Structure formats: C-alpha cells, structure tokens
Amino acid sequence: HDPAIGIHDLSLATTEFVLPHTALAAHNGTDIGKYHVGIGQRSMSVPAADEDIVTLAASAAAPLIATHGSDGIRTLVFATESSIDQAKSAGIYVHSLLGLPSATRVVELKQACYAATAGLQFAIGLVRRDPTQKVLVIASDISRYDLDSPGEATQGAAAVALLVSADPALLRIEDPSGVFTADVMDFWRPNYRDTALVDGQESITAYLQAVEGCWKDYTEQGGRALQDFAAFCYHQPFTKMAYKAHRHLLNYTGHATDEDAARRALADTTGYNTVIGNSYTASVYLALASLLESGQDLAGKPVAFLSYGSGSVAEFFAGTVAPGYRTAVRTTAHQQAVTRRREVDYATYRQLHATRLPADGGDHATAEQTTGAFRLAALRGHKRIYTTR
Ligand code: CAA
Asked: Known catalytic residue: 113?
C-alpha cells in the first residue's frame, strides 16, 4: 500500500515594491474598470533593483527549512521562465543561501508557467521511490512585458516553495493526471530578449484549448467527475482568466454555466493573484495558498488544479486536502509578505522596469532597496553576488 504523497508545507514570498493598477490607469488613461473588473487585477508586485528570482526563491523557501530542517531533502527543483543563466541552475544559489547539504541534486526546469507542476510530479515520483525523502520544489518568476503594451497590466512577481513528502500535512496529490501539449506561439521570450512577447488573444484561445485537451485526457485516464471538486485552482495570468477557463470547461463538459457556482468554486483561489499579479510558475500554487487560507473548511475535500504554460503544455490533476491542514498553513506570514510591500508611484515603477544589470563584465553594486533577508548585492566579473542579512 503506497503512502499518500503530496504537499507537506507551502511558503510564498513576493517583492519589495507594489504598483496599484490605479497608478497605471492614471498614466495611460485606461478606465480602472478594465483592470479591476475586466482582468480582475488590483495591484502588481514590482521587484527592487537588488531582487531577482533567486532572492524571491530563497525568501520563500527559508521558512520551510527553518521549520522542518533540511534532513531528507535530497532534491531541489527550481521552476522558472525568467531564468538568470543559460547554464547554471538558479537553484544552486538558493541551495547555497539556505545552507543545504552538499548531498543534494539541484536542477532548473522550464516550460513557461507550467514547469512547477512538472517539478511537483517529478518530486512525487522520487518520494514514491523512497518515502523517507523530501523534495523542495520552488517556483519563482518575474513577469515583465514591454512598457505601454497590453501585457503591462498583467505583470507581477512571486515565489512559492513546496515541500513534497509522504504523509503530507496540506494536500495529497492523486493519480491520474490529464496532460496536453500543442506547438503554439502564444507567448514566448527568445534568449536575446528580457521582456516576453505575447499574442494576447491567441494566448487566451491557446489556454482554453489546453483546458479542453487536458480535461479530455484526465477523464480518459479515469479521473474524477467535475462536480466532485470543492474548488478549482487555475493558472491565473490575471484572475479573470480563471473564470474564462472554468466557464469554458463547464461548457465543454455540457454543464450549464451557473455563475454563482463558478464564483463559489473560484473566488477563494484569487486572493493573492489579484494583488500580486502574474507570477508565472508560482501562480497556480498562489491560488492554492489563497484557497487553503480562506475560511472554507476543506478537510478531506478534493481540489482540482489546472496548470498551464504557454507554448503550450497543460496538466489537470487533483489533490485531497489533508485533515488538520489548518494548523499547517502560513496565513499570517503570507499576508505580511503582501502588506509589507512599499507602494511606488508610476515614475519609480518605470525606472525600476528599465533597470538592467550591465553585461560588460565589470564590478557593479546594485542599489540597496530591499529590506528582506536576501539580496542581490552585486555583479562582479559576470558573477551574481548574493548576501544575507
Ligand atoms: N470595465 C469593465 N471591463 C472592461 C472595461 C471596463 N471599463 N474595459 C474593458 N473591459 C474588459 C473587456 O471586455 C475584456 O473582458 P473580456 O475578455 O471578458 O471580454 C477585458 O476587460 C480585457 O480587455 P481587452 O481584451 O480589451 O484587453 P487587452 O486587449 O488590452 O489585453 C490581455 C488583455 C490580452 C490579457 C493582455 O493583458 C495581455 O496580453 N496579457 C498577457 C498575456 C496573458 O496574460 N495571456 C493569458 C493567457 S496565456 C497564459 O496564461 C500564460 C501566461 O501566464 C502569460
């Protein structure tokens, strides 16, 4: 009899700064209703000059190590689509910052916003092989589009760290999974660019097609019926997308679109994403954090996940919330991560958006803007230098 395997602990981190959508709307003359209602976003996390996916990831993972220690963690999977190096895994910097043992395998995974789910599934395989092991899966991303482009309002940044183990305290991940891949150019970022390219409407269509595709496979693999689920955690590039996706799924499966039922199934999953913005790989797990920290009693209930990564790959899977999960959630720390952000005005946001590390191989100190535990202090001879406070 296989032990239950899944998410034992979850910790999130986000940036030093935040830009409210009201400031963006005032700058570009957009009716605020388009942001607040049309896409369902209120503010977006903005990284400081001395923050990157590594500092966010270390901040997210540190509380897990503080609580559980590093015993049994033999694998660290770092999922991102805003990679800082073409060769070295960002996970190695995190491994170093957290003082993890040398007897660890570390790897970075990429498939747009989907990769953390691949990491989670690979982690489950490793734990199934040896249930005494734990795997640290970290999703960390900074979403950045060109200034004054339609994507600008859907930026954001965050990291989520998941400790995957046997007998998990939060969520037991179930078999089967429904998976789907299609070669589409809806969203991509060539190696020579640091902002993403996107065909907005095509990306929404591609997402909806992927929802159909992975749901179809999920049912063919013998998955649960749609009405079994207490809630649905969708990838949320903007929170309205979850509603579009869910309506599409109800329609596709021949269910009447009951707006009240859709709202009940999704409303508790959007809290963090509404105020953080798109965090790519982390987004679907921020949806889980919101859900688990909501007032709903979810003990023993099945929850659905729809993880989507442009390009595209999607996976539909289910988890059952562990009894007693309420004592294992980090609500206070997570809310603090959101409320501690300092609001910037539009001009400061624009300046931060344009900040780049020079590629000349010289010595460059970054401006000290962060107040958290980890910072990117400098670039020296093309090497990133991180410090701990
Ligand atoms: N009051 C209320 N609603 C309003 C409004 C107002 N005053 N003005 C407009 N709206 C509504 C519109 O009707 C529309 O709603 P519907 O989609 O339900 O019709 C919504 O606000 C957005 O308006 P537009 O479609 O005109 O917005 P846009 O063309 O400027 O851009 C976007 C929207 C395509 C999402 C753009 O922000 C974008 O390109 N974002 C990046 C790509 C993205 O996030 N794609 C999502 C799928 S891909 C994915 O999931 C992977 C990923 O993470 C990137």
From this structure: yes
